[in-house]
Amino acid sequence: MKERELRIGLVGTGGIGRSHIERINRQLQGGVVTACADPASEFGLSIAEKNGLKGYADPMEMINDPEVDAVICTTADPYHEQYVMAAIQAGKYIFCEKPLAPKADACKRIVEAELKAGKKYVQVGFMRRYDRGYRQLKEAIDTKAYGEALLLHCAHRNPSVPDDWDNTMAVENSMVHEIDVLRWLLGEDYATAEVRFGKSTSRGPKGLHDPQIMILTTKSGVRIDVESFVNNFNDYDIKCEIVCENAVLNMPEPVYISVNTKAQKGQAMYTDCFQRFEEAYNVELQSWINATKEDRVEGPTAWDGYACQVAAAAASKARDTQTIVPVVYDEMPELYKA
Ligand SMILES: NC(=O)c1ccc[n+]([C@@H]2O[C@H](COP(=O)([O-])OP(=O)(O)OC[C@H]3O[C@@H](n4cnc5c(N)ncnc54)[C@H](O)[C@@H]3O)[C@@H](O)[C@H]2O)c1
Q1: Measured in angstroms, how far is the CA atom of residue 84 from the centroid of ligand 1?
Q2: What atom of ligand 1 comes closest to residue 77's alpha carbon?
């Protein structure tokens, strides 16, 4: 496998699926998307034709094709589990976009399938772990150069979201990224979750209270606040400030171009995650290709996918009940401790 390109079959040819086909086939090395499928099969077949891939009407047939070495799943969230399970059963590595599955018990079924196989097959698409700024912060925390982390102030801001967004989406779709990346950054699990509402903007979807603030505490007592404001009608802006014993650390701002216009001088900011995290997506998928060819999983595991959904469920319950909810995980199996 090391000597030849990894032949990848992708299921779910929607927005991010198509962007992953482009990045792998035009920018990355060592792997090539050779096949694709989408449950909306005519659509999937048209994407196959456009990109010169082998198209399958049935995603399961593609996953089981011996000419497909590894799988990427970029379908809508509720359908991840079935394709991840099929890949594990076929003994193939799979990169699954986040969330691994919407509910923790579905993630646990995937963990159990890996335990039964005695091997990890799954990498979850938490691309922020590959972002240069978060990695710099992690290095500073891990070396304890500035003492222990005590408090984190974070923000997740979007220009706007579709009209069908409701209160559940702020946690389950947007702040899940913080739930994963901050657990990784601090290297510890959460103890409690809480979600509080401020005054709501009048400019978002009717069913969405926006902004919301999620408050997490870790097992050692680090306290984290995350603002989710997804209809700021401005820019896509991700912030992470860490108050340590001896310093305050801030994630670096992206390098924006300077713009002089209408007698004002300023910067053109990003408006979506694909601009902001382009490099992270590339590094993430290159790392997955490299690790897969070396017969191992290197990035966020199925257990990380499970842990994220446990905390997200607690945060959702906290939001609905306006209480502080404990985050309770099952015990981590040996397979995931290495
Ligand atoms: N890591 C990130 O930053 C990031 C960013 C965007 C999306 N995502 C994730 O990627 C996944 C896809 O998101 P998207 O924005 O491309 O969505 P999308 O709606 O553009 O595409 C989803 C695809 O799922 C397919 N689908 C629809 N019904 C299905 C079914 N019954 N079974 C299987 N597939 C079905 C659709 O045909 C479509 O091609 C989601 O899980 C999302 O959370 C991750």
Answers
A1: 14
A2: 41
Q: Is the pLDDT of residue 154 over 70?
A: yes
Residue 3: pLDDT band by 50, 70, 90 thresholds?
confident
Task: Enumerate domains of the chain plus CATH numbers.
Answer: 6-128+279-300 (3.40.50.720), 132-275 (3.30.360.10)
pTM of the model: 0.95
Instruction: Show Cβ contacts of residue 253 under 8 Å, excluding neighbours closer than 6 positions.
Output: none
Residue nearest atom 27 of ligand 1, based on CA coordinates: 76
Protein residues with CB under 6 Å of any ligand 1 atom: 12-17, 38-40, 74-77, 79, 97-98, 125, 127, 273
For ligand 1, the distance from its centroid to the CA atom of residue 313, given in whole angstroms, is 20
* Spacing, Cα 264 to ligand 1 middle (Å): 39
User: What's the pLDDT tens digit per position in 168-199?
Assistant: 889 988 899 999 999 999 999 999 999 999 89
pLDDT digits (tens, 9 = 90+) for 292-327: 999 999 999 999 999 999 999 999 999 999 999 999
